[in-house]
UniProtKB/TrEMBL annotation:
Lineage: Eukaryota, Viridiplantae, Streptophyta, Embryophyta, Tracheophyta
Gene Ontology MF annotations: zinc ion binding
SMART domains cross-referenced by the UniProt entry: PHD
Organism: Gossypium schwendimanii (Cotton)
Main location: nucleus
Residue ranges of domain Zinc finger PHD-type in the record: 246-306
Cellular component, GO annotation: nucleus
GO biological process annotation, one example: regulation of gene expression
Protein location: Nucleus
Protein name (Swiss-Prot/TrEMBL): OBERON-like protein
Purpose of the protein: Probable transcription factor.
Polar residues bias spans: 1-12, 29-49
Matching CDD domains: PHD_OBE1_like
Location of the region described as Disordered in the Swiss-Prot/TrEMBL record: 1-72
Length: 585
């Protein structure tokens, strides 16, 4: 926090205007910037919390329990902007997924995931389609949103109790979990539906570390716990607490920056919501935080280190640096915060600030321009500084300050300045060490990336050689195919030639067979002719002898005619034969 003196504004005071993690977000163009409040289902909102606590009732809070004490998550616009920065849009996927039917035996429920063994569920989920897993996530989102009333509240309590009562969910077992299974377990344990969002993708290791409280559950922070190796009682004993982005009292976080909504401790750099500090009485009157003596003023008591920090100088620093960037609504909200902080102040300066804020709020509601209101509050802080300097010179009664008292006050101021300078130096040294470590990590990562690039180039060269080799093989196979086609054509032609030869030989053999057959039949016919001729001659001779003895002359005449016929019949020669004539015999 800053001091009441305008001369003491430094880098440390600027860093107190907003949580450190949110300072990083402000510097990153793709970071989430939103004030959308979602329901927090965090079971660890108190150091000794053992049972899960469903915070749907926080929707209807009192004015002091504003959105600053609830976790917030990026809106759809912020998520889309982040996607555009990464060069990814939802229209990148043009393929429609094919919905497959899942049998009842293969289906699993959220309760199955919450109570069954990790490896069993993981094995089942590997065989389930992505559409079914997305449906499971949407079911859990609906439960976490709490729109179903008491039924969703009871279902969430059952799921969270099942998960938190298991002793087998360790880093060693969760490493075997399916990606969707791990996201569902983390969302149930933390009560945060952002882990189910398709555009927010954490590594498997990060999800496991979030589940076992070794990493901040704030997706925009993701610091290793305890953050900055803090050894205070809260960071050491409160599971999942991150001092870089979470409130010491309510354990929650949001994405508000450049605001009086957060109060930081001057000594331990832990952060607290202004609403939470007011509600728990951490903002009250007390002796001066600089000297510990003198008039009382409005102070902030840090629960983490039990030290106090003054508030008026912090408010002045915030307004001096952030008023130009606030719009009308933001200025009215900040004035309302300051008004509630100094409402019970007994310090004259605190009372003046409270009345000034109330007056400006009324004027802004009446139509006063925010630029005029901003200039008015800045002039008021200058007047407070002038009044403070005058009171220091003249003392409380308006007289001169005793030399010893003046020396004591100067010594107190010098000691306070030295302390602040030492704190700033320590902070700078710590930041330097962190930056050095980050630089070394970047250099190592750059070196690793260089090796990966070299390996990729080598792999690319190998792939190129393999492709060339494959192209050569393809060309060779094409040449072989052409050669085999040519040989096939030649073989086809040869087969046709052989077929013609076979047909010719078949015709020749048929002719030879016919000729042989006719020749054989001719020989048989000649033999038969000879036999008949001889028989006729024999019979003729016998009949001649019989005729001389008085035989039948008609029979003799018949034999004579047969003999003449046999002599007159001309047997064809081999050259005159025809295949069709063989059937005459």
């Amino acid at each position: 926090m800053g001091t009441s003196s305008g001369s003491n504004i430094n880098h440390q005071h600027m860093s107190k205007m907003l949580p450190p993690r949110q300072q990083q977000q402000q510097q990153q163009p793709g970071s989430f910037q939103t004030s959308l409040s979602l329901i927090s289902l965090d079971p660890h909102t108190s150091p000794n919390a053992q049972e899960p606590r469903f915070n749907l009732d926080n929707i209807h809070e009192s004015p002091t329990e504003s959105a600053s004490s609830r976790e917030t998550w990026p809106t759809a616009d912020a998520i889309t902007a982040k996607k555009m920065v990464n060069g990814k849009t939802e229209n990148d996927c043009t393929e429609q997924s094919v919905i497959r039917r899942v049998s009842n035996a293969d289906k699993i429920t959220l309760r199955d995931i919450a109570r069954e063994r990790v490896d069993v569920i993981s094995e089942k989920m590997h065989h389930l389609p992505d559409e079914f897993l997305d449906e499971l996530k949407n079911q859990l989102k609906t439960i976490l949103e709490g729109n179903g009333g008491s039924q969703n509240r009871e279902e969430f309590l059952i799921l969270q109790k099942l998960v938190q009562s298991r002793s087998d969910l360790t880093a060693k077992t969760l490493i075997r979990a399916h990606r969707a299974q791990l996201e569902i377990l983390v969302a149930i344990n933390m009560g945060i539906q952002a882990f189910l969002h398709p555009n927010i993708s954490l590594s498997q290791t990060s999800l496991i570390e979030v589940f076992v409280y070794k990493r901040c559950r704030n997706i925009a922070c993701q610091s290793q716990l305890p953050a900055d190796d803090c050894s205070c009682e809260i960071c050491a004993n409160r599971n999942g607490f991150c001092n870089l982005c979470m409130c010491v009292i309510c354990n929650k976080f949001d994405f508000e920056v450049n605001t009086c909504r957060w109060i930081g401790c001057d000594f331990c750099s832990h952060w607290t919501h202004t609403d939470c500090a007011i509600r728990d009485g951490q903002i009250c009157m007390g002796p001066s935080a600089k000297s510990g003596t003198g008039p009382t003023e409005m102070l902030f008591h840090c629960r983490a280190c039990n030290r106090t920090s003054e508030l008026l100088g912090w408010v002045k620093d915030v307004f001096q640096h952030c008023v130009p960037a606030w719009d009308r609504e933001a200025l009215m909200r900040e004035l309302d915060f300051v008004s509630r902080i100094f409402r019970g102040s007994d310090d004259p300066r605190g009372k003046k600030l409270f009345l000034k804020c109330e007056d400006l709020l009324e004027k802004l509601r009446g139509g006063l321009a925010e630029s005029m209101a901003g200039r008015s509050i800045l002039m008021f802080f200058q007047e407070l500084d002038t009044d403070s300097s005058t009171s220091l010179e003249n003392g409380e009664g308006g007289g001169l300050i005793a030399p010893q008292e003046a020396c004591n006050r100067i010594a107190d101021v010098v000691q306070e300045a030295i302390k602040k300078m030492e704190m700033v130096a320590d902070e700078k040294m710590r930041m330097f060490k962190k930056a050095r470590l980050a630089l070394d990590a970047c250099e190592r990562e750059l070196e690793d990336k260089g090796k990966e690039v070299a390996e990729l180039k080598l792999e690319r060269q190998k792939k190129k050689l393999q492709i060339e080799e494959l192209e050569k093989i393809v060309r060779l196979k094409h040449a072989e195919a052409d050669m085999f086609q040519l040989k096939a054509n030649e073989a086809k032609q040869e087969a046709e030639r052989l077929q013609r030869i076979a047909h010719a030989k078949s015709d020749k053999s048929e002719e030879e067979y016919t000729s042989s057959y006719l020749k054989l039949r001719l020989s048989e016919a000649e033999a038969e002719k000879k036999y008949l001729f001889e028989k006729i001659k024999l019979q003729e001779s016998s009949h001649t002898s019989q005729s001389s003895n008085g035989g039948d002359p008609s029979q003799i005449l018949t034999y004579a005619k047969i003999r003449d016929l046999l002599h007159g019949y001309n047997i064809p020669s081999k050259t005159d034969s025809h295949p069709n004539e063989r059937h005459k015999f």
